[in-house]
Design goal:
single chain; alpha+beta; 4 helices
Length: about 110
């Protein structure tokens, strides 16, 4: 099991209560989207407007609105960066670190 169900539920509820909030894409995700998705600004900020949980395999997923009438995106919270001023930034960083560690152990990271 990748996620601790209780911790993940608490984080998801806290993030939903904070909607909408801004994030940046990790460099790896930005590079991937710039080569595969037309018009995605990998350097800019994106607004998270909704959240979903895709189970242990998918984790917390953010619905991103890049603005300017561009197509909305779905991205794993693991591949997003919250500004350090966001009160949930430290908790999100712990979630990301834990998931990445578990994924690497399973050979999926």
């Amino acid at each position: 099991m990748l996620d601790d169900p209780e911790k993940t539920d608490r984080l998801l509820l806290a993030l939903k209560a904070a909607l909408p909030f801004e994030v940046r894409l990790t460099p790896m995700l930005a590079k991937h989207l710039q080569t595969s998705a037309a018009g995605v600004d990998g350097q800019g900020r994106h607004r998270v407007t909704q959240l979903s949980y895709l189970g242990d395999e998918g984790g917390i997923v953010c619905h991103l609105d890049p603005g300017g009438g561009k197509e909305r995106l779905l991205a794993s919270l693991t591949h997003l960066l919250l500004p350090p001023t966001n009160p949930l930034a430290a908790e999100v960083a712990r979630y990301q670190k834990h998931r990445i560690k578990k994924l690497k152990k399973q050979g999926k990271g």
